[in-house]
Write a structure and sequence with these properties.
It contains 14 helices and no strands.
């Protein structure tokens, strides 16, 4: 009898938790849809495609995503993070300083999580909403305490996906202290024929743009590393346009017709301040 009761109690508890999670996701979907974001492929998909609100994000609009991010667990928190990232936008322009600060605390915890999905979401969203302005003339969002250290910890993990997302985030926030490590990794990845990782390092180097970034990009642009129609070749085109401004944006625009690179191209165009179809 006690066993039956405990099993029934557990079933009820799981049902309540599942129902709460579904309600939270439905609420997030409603908020995103109200701002013109298509969530047919899921909230993470809207983040991946660099979807931009077509309705202004007004005060209070971020309440539901922020609540899921700061108080949710598991999938609810992950969805909340991606929804917040979509609505707050690059450099957190649509969020208040208080909202960014609150989000930052939870994102740093996610970046340091042992759960891969949580770590992936936290790192990617943190990179986008705390990204330094492209034109270098704007004010960069205040980074939450512990974020940079947490990103370096992810960079030093063994999994390649961890290294890629950490390099992306460090580049987006323009963390200058990462340049020596990124430069060393770039050449190491090239020597090891780890093309995608080398492309990620080059992308981050170009975003930071300090030191010998121009020389590195020029070298990459002039050899076989820039050839082909994969994600790495597109990263080289982005680096060239970002650092050298040599008209390589045309290559990025052409990649919009390639389904495998469309999202990557959309992100680059948005970052460069160009129209995004």
């Amino acid at each position: 009898m006690p066993i039956t009761f405990r099993a029934a109690g557990l079933t009820l508890a799981l049902s309540v938790c599942s129902g709460a999670a579904l309600f939270a996701q439905a609420s997030l979907n409603e908020v995103l849809t109200r701002h013109g974001i298509v969530v047919k492929g899921g909230i993470a998909s809207a983040f991946d495609t660099h979807a931009v609100p077509t309705t202004p994000v007004t005060p209070g609009a971020l309440a539901a995503p922020l609540a899921s991010l700061t108080a949710g667990k598991g999938g609810e928190q992950i969805n909340g993070a991606y929804a917040f990232g979509v609505l707050a936008g690059r450099s957190g322009r649509a969020a208040s300083a208080q909202e960014l600060a609150a989000a930052g605390v939870s994102l740093v915890q996610m970046v340091g999580s042992e759960d891969r999905r949580s770590r992936l979401a936290g790192t990617r969203v943190a990179g986008r909403i705390f990204a330094a302005p492209y034109d270098r003339s704007g004010v960069s969002p205040a980074l939450p305490a512990g974020l940079v250290d947490a990103l370096f910890a992810v960079l030093n993990r063994d999994a390649e996906v961890d290294q890629l997302i950490a390099m992306e985030a460090l580049g987006l926030i323009r963390e200058r202290s990462a340049m020596p490590s990124l430069t060393e990794r770039y050449y190491f990845y090239r020597e090891q024929n780890k093309r995608s990782l080398a492309g990620g390092a080059l992308e981050a180097i170009a975003r930071i743009g300090d030191g010998n970034a121009a020389a590195i990009v020029k070298q990459a642009a002039g050899d076989a590393f820039a050839q082909g129609k994969d994600a790495t070749a597109l990263a080289v085109a982005f680096a060239r346009e970002r650092v050298l401004q040599d008209g390589s944006i045309a290559v990025i625009q052409q990649a919009l017709d390639d389904r495998s690179r469309r999202d990557q191209a959309r992100g680059y165009l948005a970052e460069l301040g160009a129209p995004v179809p």
